[in-house]
Design a protein that fits this description.
heterodimer; A: alpha/beta; Rossmann fold; eight-stranded mixed β-sheet; four-stranded antiparallel β-sheet; globular; B: 321 residues; alpha/beta; 12 strands
């Protein structure tokens, strides 16, 4: 796991705010939603990195920029050392074969007018990887691999005839059929029922071994990271506040936000009682983020200096980094 | 907790939705007692009938959904057979309900204050607008929201605050039963924890009896006194929360507990449950869980199990005959 597959450098996405004509004329300076603000990390081949955060933290936007579904405001994504922005035309199409995505909602990401077989074989046709019976055979093999069996029987079915769990399997099969080596999984289990979640997670772990995959696993649920991630990165208001090996971050969370997130996870045990009260308030607006450390208004440890000084990730050894000067100095 | 006569009794309740391809029996013969002051966690996966059960208590089912048979006794009076006037006096003022998505439950065109005034005056037209706003301010205070925010509109509030507004609207008429249907599903994890903590404070402050409907057993673990696990429109298991978590009887409850992540435990992988939930138009004969059950017996395929008592709680499973 030493070969670097994806590297993200200083990735930033500022969405301009749409305003009326008069407002544009009379106000100086455009306002922006700072969805992602200088995010850097890298992924080694075969690794699973969990990108964790609450809604509005910028985790999905980061995933989309890596796949070049969004053009970043600044910063760069490297795939096997080459800048993704330098790809164009045919080369970019070939790159898309290798970088795939699994979305959250299997109801919205499957066309109701395409049968299971058509949906899964579609990427093969688009990329010219196979056609006719060749495409059909590869589709059937992929369906069996993700547990859509009997594949022959399900090939002609339409999404509305499938259960939620089966749909998500179709989405996974469609992502993997072009034999990618990098997959962005954007909340792949958030919509599923409890018993289905475990099944999808299990399938993703199996696929990783079968097809030698590297995942960026985007989720709001830290608890599921425990079962699939090698490393995790915690995002808050467009910035990574802590990143490191999963076990290390779980056992020794350094950033107060990470500690809060871990504390907030519901524990299925009636005897369990939280040791620290939850902080008040919610994630602030990314249009006008708090100065200094963005977490300071909610932070139980905040000091006056947190308002003033912007925080940067500090290496604590063995790849564990956190952006909190109170804890890292 | 009062162990005398129950505040709410469901007796053999059956709720049906006639649709083009047959009849969906969403709730199939549920009997349940609820006592004053307790929090009942109603847990199950999508399609198990938990929300339908919640909606049928204040008779808020949308047509074609209907209560086919059974009784819902609220302090001895049968809600199923109640006239419209009596029903209206019960809804809101005695039995209140909050839903999953606070944004779609609030009217974007009206201020928060207007929502409160309308709620109060709909039940008692003699209350002045000023007085209703005064009451709203004191309810909001107990929810940690400043009274000035009564002038604001739903879009100006965060998700967690909207959900607190919803519970404020539910509490302003001092109901004694609160039915909360997945109240935290739309919220982020920290806000969810805040909300559940708040609910625990409110239950004591307002002497509430709560039915907390959720798909997440972890959410009800610390809050619920008792838990009812539903599967395929029926009760799989019911009993004190502690005993359900310590000694789950029904194979479905066991599977459900094993498939939820617990970061406080050191287990490397989750257990999975084979199969998928039953088709409620044509449910399996016998026990609805038998096609997925790892311990299925011949009886299970033929006869529907009643609730058997064991270990201080009850499970609908032939293993405990």
């Amino acid at each position: 796991m030493t070969e670097e597959l994806i590297r993200v450098e200083n990735l930033t996405m500022h969405f301009p705010l749409q305003k009326g004509l008069l407002a544009n004329i009379f106000t100086k300076g455009k306002r922006f939603v700072r969805a992602v603000d200088g995010v850097s990390f890298s992924l080694c081949k075969g690794e699973v990195l969990g990108l964790v955060g609450e809604s509005g933290s910028g985790k999905t936007t980061t995933g989309r920029m890596i796949l070049r579904l969004l053009e970043p405001t600044s910063g760069e994504v490297f795939y096997r050392g080459r800048a993704v922005s330098s790809y164009a035309g045919r080369a970019m199409e070939d790159l898309r074969e290798k970088m795939q995505v699994i979305f959250q909602d299997p109801y919205a990401s499957l066309s109701p007018r395409m049968s299971v077989g058509d949906a899964i074989s579609h990427p093969l046709l688009i990329h010219g990887l196979a056609k006719g019976s060749g495409a059909r055979d590869r589709t059937l093999a992929m369906m069996e691999a993700v547990g859509l069996s009997p594949a022959e029987f399900l090939y002609k079915k339409y999404p509305h005839q499938l259960s939620g769990g089966q749909r998500q399997r179709v989405v996974i099969a469609r992502a993997l059929v072009t034999e990618p080596d990098f997959v962005v999984a954007d909340e792949p289990i958030a919509m599923a029922d409890v018993s289905v979640r475990a099944m999808i997670l299990e399938l993703m772990i199996r696929c990783r071994e079968m097809f030698d995959l590297t995942y960026l696993f985007i989720t709001h649920d830290l608890a599921t990271c425990k079962y699939i991630c090698d490393r995790i990165a915690i995002m808050y208001l467009g910035k990574i506040v802590e990143i490191g090996p999963m076990k290390e971050v779980f056992a020794n969370p350094v950033h107060p936000y990470t500690a809060t997130l871990l504390e907030a996870i519901p524990v299925p045990d009636p005897r369990y009682r939280r040791t620290h009260p939850m902080p008040k308030g919610e994630i602030p607006s990314p249009i006008n983020p708090p100065p200094g450390c963005a977490f300071h208004p909610r932070c139980p440890l905040a000091e006056p200096s947190c308002r003033l000084n912007e925080q940067h990730l500090v290496d604590l050894g063995s790849g564990h980094k956190a952006a909190c000067s109170l804890k890292t100095l | 907790m009062d162990t005398g006569s129950p505040m709410l009794s469901l007796e053999d309740l059956k709720v049906e939705f006639p649709i083009s391809i047959g009849t969906v029996t969403a709730v199939n013969g549920v009997s349940l007692d609820l006592f004053q002051g307790e929090v009942m966690g109603l847990v199950g996966e999508s399609g198990c009938g938990k929300s339908t059960l919640g909606l049928s208590i204040p008779r808020l089912l949308r047509p074609p959904g209907r209560i086919a048979s059974g009784r819902i006794l609220y302090r001895g009076r049968d809600i199923v057979r109640m006239g419209k006037r009596e029903l209206l006096s019960l809804r809101g003022s005695k039995i209140a309900m909050i839903f999953q998505d606070p944004l779609t439950s609030l009217n974007p065109l009206y201020s928060i204050g207007h929502h409160f005034v309308e709620t109060v005056r709909a039940h008692d037209g003699r209350v002045s607008r000023r007085e209703a706003l005064g009451r709203a301010a004191s309810v909001l205070e107990s929810l940690g929201i400043a009274a000035e925010r009564l002038d604001e509109f739903p879009h100006q509030m965060s998700g967690g605050m909207r959900q607190r507004i919803m519970i404020g609207l539910a509490l302003i008429l001092s109901p004694d039963l609160l039915i909360a249907d997945e109240p935290t599903t739309a919220l982020d994890v920290i806000v969810e924890a805040q909300f559940l903590d708040l609910l625990d404070v409110l239950r004591k402050q307002y002497n509430l009896t709560i039915i907390l409907i959720t798909h997440n057993l972890g959410n009800v673990a610390q809050l619920a006194d008792r838990i009812t696990v539903m599967y395929g429109g029926t009760i799989a298991e019911v009993g004190p929360a502690q005993s359900i978590f310590d000694r789950p009887l029904h194979p479905y409850t066991q599977g459900l507990l094993a498939s939820i992540p617990n970061i406080r435990l050191d287990e490397p992988k989750l257990k999975t449950m084979a199969g998928s939930p039953p088709d409620l138009v044509d449910p399996p004969a016998g026990c609805v869980f038998h096609p997925r059950c790892p311990q299925v017996m011949d009886t299970c395929r033929q006869d529907r199990p009643p609730l058997f008592a064991r270990n201080g709680h009850k499970a609908a499973c032939w293993l405990y005959r």
